[in-house]
């Protein structure tokens, strides 16, 4: 399970992974997907549980509005369609309850994007999740991505962070930027974001993950398909990418 993570999560009991196979892919972060979620009275009383129906309706509305109106999501939808993998939002996008450490994810077994309805509560967050996870879906469709291959996983996380997540503001918030290294800030942000994502879904050491990311970084960072440009925050880049899409055959 590839994830859009909020923070790294260890997810262990008494220092031991709960289930090696599930732990390796991050499915424990998606209790509704596993069929293990049920509202707890203690959490209903504090307002954390008990609003699932309202959250799902709001999430599905935000998904629909992003699919119809977001330039970056429309680019990704067109690219997937042109690559032979058209998206049916009723089949390929699911709003679900998740662990609070993730905001979304991509399930390659079902070829489905998960939007975490209890975390991604604003339209801007839903747009970010959809764009990020559609990069993974695009790689799975067009580039024959194998999530069991660590280099493939690292590459798609680099591409998703590069094209849809990182900006100087994001780099600053992650501690990867300063006014003295603006040029390097974006690359550092991408590496940090990719590292967090890899560690969230695979039980490997940080040093090993860093080595894999560094190995594939030059090639994967240079691959701007299908958006064609890195999206900077508070810029017209999303609209420019949308206008340029027909030149690449994405309509």
Could you characterize the architecture of this molecule?
- There is one protein chain.
- Helix content is 55%, strand content 9%.
- By secondary structure, the protein is of the alpha+beta class.
- The strands form two sheets. Strands 1-5-6-4 form a four-stranded mixed sheet.
- The protein is globular and about 50 Å long.
- The model is unreliable at 8-24 and 168-179 (pLDDT under 50).
Give the low-confidence spans: 8-24, 168-179
Q: Quick one: how many beta strands?
A: 6
Main β-sheet: number of strands, strand sense, barrel status? 4 strands, mixed
Gap between N and C termini? 29 Å
Number of helices: 12
User: How many whole angstroms does the radius of gyration measure?
Assistant: 18 Å
Anisotropy-based shape: globular
The secondary structure category is alpha+beta
Mean pLDDT: 84
Helicity level: 40-55%
Please give the order of strands in the largest beta sheet: 1-5-6-4
Topology pattern, helix = H, strand = E: EEEHHHHHHEEEHHHHHH
Determine the strand fraction and express it as a percent band. 5-15%
């Amino acid at each position: 399970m590839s994830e859009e993570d909020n923070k790294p999560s260890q997810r262990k009991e008494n220092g031991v992974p709960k289930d090696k196979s599930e732990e390796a892919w991050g499915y424990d972060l998606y209790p509704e997907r596993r069929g293990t979620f049920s509202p707890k009275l203690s959490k209903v009383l504090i307002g954390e549980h008990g609003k699932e129906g309202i959250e799902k309706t709001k999430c599905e509305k935000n998904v629909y509005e992003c699919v119809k109106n977001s330039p970056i999501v429309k680019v990704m939808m067109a690219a997937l369609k042109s690559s032979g993998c058209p998206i049916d939002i009723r089949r390929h996008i699911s709003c679900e309850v998740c662990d609070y450490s993730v905001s979304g994810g991509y399930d390659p077994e079902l070829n489905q994007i998960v939007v975490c309805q209890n975390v991604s509560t604003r339209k801007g967050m839903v747009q970010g999740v959809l764009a990020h996870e559609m990069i993974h879906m695009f790689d799975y469709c067009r580039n024959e991505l194998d999530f069991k291959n660590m280099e493939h996983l690292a590459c798609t996380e680099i591409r998703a962070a590069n094209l849809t997540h990182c900006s100087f503001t994001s780099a600053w918030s992650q501690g990867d930027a300063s006014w003295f290294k603006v040029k390097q800030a974006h690359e550092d942000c991408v590496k940090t974001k990719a590292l967090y994502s890899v560690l969230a879904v695979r039980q490997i050491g940080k040093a090993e993950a860093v080595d894999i990311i560094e190995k594939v970084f030059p090639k994967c960072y240079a691959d701007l398909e299908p958006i064609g440009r890195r999206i900077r925050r508070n810029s017209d880049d999303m609209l420019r990418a949308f206008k340029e899409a027909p030149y690449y055959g994405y309509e």
